[in-house]
């Protein structure tokens, strides 16, 4: 398991971890940078996202997107420190991290880090699940996270756009990377 998120040694999978959590054993909680993580249910995330956008409108979208770029950068630097991997290998770690955390399933990564172009497809985006039916792509957190992570991996500015999104009825979320 290459995920950036660490679980207690006797917890071999996220499911067994979740089982322990249901029993109230918080010692099994995953950690990042040796700090215990806090977990929210999908309903809590939905309420937070809806509240933010209801209050701030498009400003709420900007907050989610801009804030998560920093999260992506931090995650990349942590991945490099912890796993001594860079570039494409770091992206493989990111794929595992998505699965471990339940953010979504990265199905395909086509990325040229030198040209800083490519695409990433994600199934089961937690954020699309937490969104109402939308006319536009709605995975602002994941878009920013990917942008921050890939920007740090490429070592130069890039942009990530979400072209397709489950929240607007597409089969999966597709993010394109542009230099
Ligand atoms: Zn999406």
Describe this structure as you would to a colleague:
The chain is α+β, with helices and mostly antiparallel strands. The chain folds into two domains: 1-39, no CATH class; 42-178, Trafficking protein particle complex subunit 3 (Muramoyl-pentapeptide Carboxypeptidase, domain 2). It is built from six helices and six strands; from the N terminus they run αββαααββααββ. The protein has a four-stranded antiparallel sheet with strand order 3-4-6-5, covered by helices on one side. The longest helix has 26 residues, at 58-83.
Count of β-strands? 6
Strand content: 15-25%
How many helices? The count is 6
- CATH superfamily (homologous) name of the largest domain: Trafficking protein particle complex subunit 3
Strand order of the largest sheet: 3-4-6-5
User: What oligomeric assembly is this protein in?
Assistant: single chain
What's the gyration radius in Å?
16 Å
Number of domains: 2
The secondary structure category is alpha+beta
Gap from first CA to last CA: 31 Å
Low-pLDDT parts are none
Largest sheet: 4 strands, antiparallel
Average of pLDDT: 86
What ligands are attached or bound here? zinc ion
CATH topology value of the largest domain: Muramoyl-pentapeptide Carboxypeptidase, domain 2
Order of helices and strands: HEEHHHEEHHEE
- Principal-axis shape: globular
CATH class of the largest domain: Alpha Beta
CATH architecture label of the largest domain: 2-Layer Sandwich
Helicity range of the residues?
40-55%
